[in-house]
Amino acid sequence: MSDVAIRVEGLGKRYRIGARQKYKALRDTMTDALYAPFRAAASLFNGRNKAGDNGQPDDTHIWALKDVSFDVKRGEVVGVIGRNGAGKSTLLKILSRITEPTAGRAEVYGRIGSLLEVGTGFHPELTGRENIYLNGAILGMRKAEIVRKFDEIVDFSEIEKFIDTPVKHYSSGMYVRLAFAVAAHLEPEILLVDEVLAVGDAAFQKKCLGKMGDVAKEGRTVLFVSHNMRAVQRLCPRSVLLGGGIIILDDSSCIVINSYLSDSLHTRNTWSREGSMPSCKELVFTNISACQEQESPGRLFRADKPITITIRYIVSRPLDACQIGLRIHNAEGLPIFTTADSDASGTSALQKMPGSHRACVHIPEHFLAPGMYSLVVGAHLPGRNSYDRLDDVVTFEIAPEYSVKSLDDRLGLVAPLIKWQITKEP
Fold first, then answer.
1. Are 354 and 292 in contact (CB under 8 A)?
2. Topology of domain 270-409, per CATH?
3. Is the pTM of this model over 0.85?
4. Residues of the chain with CATH 2.70.50.60
5. Euclidean distance between CA atoms 207 and 204, whole angstroms
6. Which of 99, 128, 362, 402 has its CA at a distance of 20 to 30 angstroms from the CA of residue 321?
């Protein structure tokens, strides 16, 4: 028996831009009939080339996937990441047999359970109970198998009160709860999960990720599409990066995620305000920069060197109670820490008097873990109006090669080098 669960060879999917639905309403039919003579006349004067597969340019079609090839072994958990429009959902639809490919082939060896778009696989007129049995039958399960899993599915979905209600009356969150419970509990050999989990609340997302981890430990194959890089890194040893319908990188999740984030979050270690200063603000930021060792701002920072954030601003009138704050986010948008000038003891009120000022924030060495970071800088009166705010104004990257040893064993958003003192008791 082959150890390959999914085999994709030269896969391509082409869509026609602006393609119409197969079934049209009476209004659409009448509109087409009304404007048909005008469209025919316009086509006589249209000199654009609308070639299809003859090798000439074609502006009426788009390739969602093109020449995609990879294998997934049985029991392997693989993440699929990429920007919106990269072809991730199209790939899963082809593997789920919802969409046919235009070119190449996709072979799946095993029973598939899929959770793609909200509502896929459910009949809206049937109740939640009836849809569980329907999905089980589609997966090829016997009624006895479904009955054995039924209570577990309902308990996981947390919608027991509505299990005999037609699913067309469900909210999107209820839909996802039941759909994931069915997909994960009816023992598919291959589980395909799209970003649809984002619809659920935080507690249910955590519950789903835990269940997916259990499915992976049971030796079943999982293909997981997500924008949640932490979840991908936690669940998937390997990931595939898609971009523009092609595979950009297929490697360990750590390498693929770093490549994706580095490309998505363009580094910009310094920012300066361009143009005239806003006249309606009492405090305006003019320059923000991040550097190490008093050098010119660079693209890569070392983890074993401190980082200095310099904030320059202009004050037009006295602002004694004003606070200037700095927040650092990681590439996933999670806040790492927030600090304000009020943290410093003995802050002089002169810093908020009219004129130009400079504030420096020093981040110690061996504090930030390797990865991409962005700065949010703001000035405001506590609990009141904001004078100026800049989101993601400066970005920088901490290189992994200068981090402390055994960093891979450290879990957390930061990686401080904490001093230990160990003595032998008498």
1. no
2. Coagulation Factor XIII; Chain A, domain 1 (2.70.50)
3. no
4. 270-409
5. 5
6. 362
250 CB-near residues (< 8 Å, 6+ apart) = 70, 238, 239, 240, 241, 256
Q: And the tokens for 207?
A: 């519950």
Question: Which helix (H) or strand (E) covers residue 151, if one does?
Answer: helix 143-157
In the three-class reduction of DSSP (H, G, I as helix; E, B as strand; rest coil), residue 386 is classed as strand
Pairwise CA distance, residues 305 & 293, whole Å: 8
First to last CA, the chain: 63
User: Token pair for residue 391?
Assistant: 């989101």
One-letter-per-residue 3-state SS of 303-348 = CCCCEEEEEEEEECCCCCCCEEEEEEEECCCCEEEEEEHHHCCCCC
What token pair was written down for 311?
């904030």
The listed CATH number (3.40.50.620, 3.40.50.300, 3.40.30.10, 3.40.50.2300) that belongs to domain 4-21+53-263: 3.40.50.300
Task: Tell me the per-residue pLDDT of 55-74, one tens digit each, with 9 for 90 and over.
Answer: 454 567 889 999 999 999 99
C-alpha distance from residue 83 to each of 195, 241, 258, 333 (Å) = 12, 9, 14, 15
Outline which parts of the chain fall under CATH 3.40.50.300: 4-21+53-263
Tokens of 379: 């000035």
Per the document, the length of the chain is 426
The DSSP 8-state label assigned to residue 169 in this structure reads: G
For residue 93, what is the enclosing H or E element? helix 88-95
